[in-house]
Write a structure and sequence with these properties.
The chain is built from 17 helices and 20 strands. It has about 450 residues and is α/β, with parallel strands linked by helices. A nine-stranded mixed sheet has the order 7-8-6-9-10-11-12-13-14, sandwiched between helices. GO terms for molecular function: UDP-N-acetylmuramoylalanine-D-glutamate ligase activity.
Length: about 450
Amino acid sequence: MQKRLVILGAGESGMGAALLGKKEGYEVFVSSLQTIEMRYKQVLQQEDIAFEEDQHSIERLLKADLVMKSPGIPEDAPVVVKLREARIKVISEIEFASLHTHAMLIGITGSNGKTTVTSWIHYILQNAGIDAVLAGNIGDSFAKNVARKSNNCYVLELSSFQLDGIETFKPHIAVLTNITPDHLDRYHNQFESYIAAKFRIVKNQTQQDYFIYDADDPVINKWLSQHEIKSIKIPLSSKELSGNGAFLKDDELHIKINESHFTMAQDDIALKGIHNTKNAMAASAVAQLLKIRKQTIKESLQRFHGVEHRLERVINKNKVTYINDSKATNINATYYALDSVKADTIWIVGGVDKGNDYTELLPLVNEKVKAIVCLGVDNQKIINSFNNCVDTIVETRDMQEAVDQAFNLANPGDTVLLSPACASFDLFKNYEDRGNQFKEAVLKLK
């Protein structure tokens, strides 16, 4: 008898799971509480996949043998609670896709830096001639890629939401860039629950697998001191390490893996800043584990120029630099952004607050920020946090207005930095939409 697969949510993850489910012979039904985007609806119609939008027909959903929940749907959503009460298995798209491939999996998670590290690893592998696919929380979904064709290697960016729904998913190489408070609204303001979600990446690893992590991160170190993991640990540090790992010594990057030792001048790394040096360590440690030539690694570290919407220099206009850091959706990411800017800064900030504590930013804001442009539906928390240290704070409700205000406030030599520290969903589809609108608005300036 044909198994019934229900997909909750019809975004990128839901669409990928629907296509893979059909390919694997499931009877697929897609259920979305929102209106489905036309581009996705057309795919469902072309593939003859049954769907509903603007509702969940509970009786029909309860007939499922398996449910794939999109990562944006919280665990305590009423429909998920009812399905679990009915003892129907609910998994993530990452889990579902992993059940249908035997490829080597490289999984990258962390509060910040995971997109850069994922893209950097993929870039190195491509340069080495390895047919690796970039997927997960970046580009096309993992499931959609598995549905398209058989591949030997996937490099997956993984959010905590995606990891929440795994049972057997196991990356051969897992990377954890760092852990700082983020998405606390989703985890009922329990930082420990968010930490546990991140560490699910090592849950199913064995002694034959590898775990690359920031050994300077106190949150990661505390968790590791309290929990056993089976995989081989590869630490990253700004201080010299004695065994396997990556570290800095005398302004040189050192990667020591299984008797192989790779070195490179820190100044030769394309992306600057200590956080990017850590990202380079993570990417090159993966490359060393895969026995990629040292010259290929070195050239890839020298030539990689980052990802869109992450400290992306848009233009220098009238001697004012405009930087798009729309991907900074939490305090820690914005801290890196403000720290990296050397000029007086007009800071565009705001959106959907995820339980932010802005006090960590106060020293940098005091030192660097001459004006704040709030961009959000509710900006009061930002205003209350910074009105004692920044003289000029203005409120805006759309990107063009925010950029125009920043333009009027900037003097030659200043930097206008979009680094929101918040999610984008109050005014934009996602952080990419926010970043693209920023770039469009900047390029329209006279």
